[in-house]
Amino acid sequence: MIGRIWGAFNPPKPPKSKDALKFGILGAANIAPLALVGPAKSHPEIVIQAVAARDRTKAEAFAKTNNIPEVKNSYQEILDDPNIDCVFIPLANSLHFEWAVRSIRAGKHVLLEKPSVSNSTEAKILFNLPELSKHDGPVLLEAFHNRFYPAWSFFRSLITPADVVHVSSNSMIPWWGTGKDDIHFNYDLAGGTMMAMGTYNFAALRLAFDADPEECLSCDVTPGTEGVHTKCDYDFTAKFRFPNGAIGEAHSTLKGPTMWTPSHVTATHKQVVVPDKTLPADQEKVQARQVTLHGVIHGIFWHRIDVKDVFEIRRKDNGTVIKTWTEQKSHKTYSFSEAGEEFAGLPGETYWMSYRYMLEQFVNRVKGRKTQYWVSREDSIAQMKMLDMAYEKSGLGVRPNSAYTTTMAQ
């Protein structure tokens, strides 16, 4: 484990190709080194070329620390530079829409921090921009990095969405990991725990069911009590109804206990009949599967996939149970080669973070190559609809449109 994590933060640095994509970063955000600067070191087709921030002094310090050659005076200056191919947008949620639109209209490929925007209204506008439908148009990706990690792909291969009847997803940040003045707790900046950690939980539910929720049945929150904090949830517990009566439940907090615990998602299947030619004609074998992925968000540090299968042999005529037993297995897949079978030939190393797996696919899409996994425009819109659904049910209300959204509508 130590070697794997050391390698993640100190990866090999292959020579950069002549046609490497040059990235500009909008904002000297704390997440940028983890999400882009570090993972880009091991990718021969990515160069981090420039950064800009509202405070140039902060941008200069960020550039020096991360060996970025250029500091621009403004975000727009990055977009105006023909030498920049792509931009990474790790700004406050309320600024995602404006700068993603501006970037796309400037012809830049966009890697956009999640959640993609403030609400589904903005998502529908952004992901349906006509520029994105052009044959040689810009690439836009909501940076759901964990969904590119091998453990997530392997987890999904172990479940049958049509047979899943219940999914629960939990995550947390300890109380000491956030502060009152963080952007997560600012309503005007489209903050809230559902927007921060909850978006992982909600995506896990949608993908485990391979469907979108029909209704948010309940959403209990603990909101702030003053100023910009009053409509921001510090924690939440939400319950959704999915097609065929399936239930999805999600919980997260940004003010959790002192001891951090890994995020997890559990998918529970209904009983299904499985073929067994060894049985007499009047008997059948049924299986009920439960699959849990521990370490949903940052699998590089630690994860485990637990599979629990409960079997029964029963009579067909009256359902009398003749025999019951349980089989349990655990898996770890830090690379696709470890996942084996259908994943064996896919690229990756055990020291690749989820961000690095995501960058591999982002570059492939920009270069016109095949991508093994992608977060589609429709997926990102559906994700924001689910967040809106929960905020409406909570009573806190949908996160507000940005001023730029209003300007575009005029």
Topology:
Blueprint: H1 2-9, E1 21-26, H2 32-40, E2 46-52, H3 56-65, E3 70-71, H4 75-79, E4 86-89, H5 93-105, E5 109-112, H6 120-126, E6 140-142, H7 150-157, E7 164-170, H8 193-209, E8 215-223, E9 233-241, E10 247-253, E11 264-269, E12 272-274, E13 283-294, E14 304-315, E15 321-331, H9 336-339, H10 354-366, H11 377-394, H12 403-409
Helix pairs in contact: 8-11
Q: How does this structure look, described?
A:
This protein is of the alpha/beta class. It has 12 helices and 15 strands. Strands 7, 8, 9, 10, 11, 12, 13, 14 and 15 form a 9-stranded mixed sheet that branches. Strands 3-2-1-4-5-6 form a 6-stranded parallel sheet, with helices on both faces. The chain is globular. 46% of the residues are buried.
Offer a concise description of the structure.
The chain is an alpha/beta fold and 410 residues long. It has helices spanning 2-9, 32-40, 56-65, 75-79, 93-105, 120-126, 150-157, 193-209, 336-339, 354-366, 377-394, 403-409, and strands spanning 21-26, 46-52, 70-71, 86-89, 109-112, 140-142, 164-170, 215-223, 233-241, 247-253, 264-269, 272-274, 283-294, 304-315, 321-331. Helix 6 (120-126) links the parallel strand 5 and strand 6 (140-142).
